[in-house]
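Render this sequence as a predicted structure.
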Amino acid sequence: MTSHPTQADAAAALLAANRRRRSIRRWIAIGTLPLTLAALLLVGKLLSMYAFAHQSVSAFVVGGYAESESAARGQDVANWFEPFKAPYNIGTALAGAEQLPEARVELERALPLAQGLDICFVRINLSLVMERQGDAAQADGDAAAAQFYGEALQVTVETPEECNSDQAQEQSPDPNRDMSDSLEQNQQRQQEKQQQSQQNAERGEQPQQPEQQEQGEQEQPSQSDLDEIEDRLNQGARDRENQLDDGEGDGGGTDRPW
């Protein structure tokens, strides 16, 4: 005699099947949880990077260099996507604040991390920082100015030819400045400054070391000597201010970082 499944048996089978499906869904959810969390973290990181970058650029444009640097340092945390951007923005903000040695360190850190056409504006800003270091040394009568100008010129000359292309201009952080023209002007200006600085050094136009007085005696400067020294210091400060200006005046100044 053959037995037939009753309605109760069918209901029990349906419940068992539902339990199996729920169990499968639960294990699938548990298994995909790390991927879901990773995706959420990735989206959050991308949004935070965009926010930090936007804040850094916006602050720099209005001259808030400290705020720009602070925002850029937020980009520097676990930056796997565009690792050059954080040191580039930090260095550019420091350059705007005339913290030239620190700016140079950051831009030199950014250079090997940049790829493709991103190298172009990293090189431009690095060369401008080196040139400003030369301007500062020149204004102070420091013979190291020629070395700074030479380093700036080398960075400019070694900029890839692709940086003169339309594609490079499209990626420029400052569309209002032509990248090709800027590279050409930077090279010409830096070369002229290097040559002038070398000529000044050859003519002996550099700070003189104080002569040793016999028997440890020091000659007391006269009032006219003191007045002349003060005039030279004031002139040096004026020259430095003019040289660090953003290309105004007679055109001999250094460009503003991008």
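Summary. Residues 206-218, 235-252 have pLDDT under 50 and may be disordered. Residues 44 and 101 are 34 Å apart (CA to CA).
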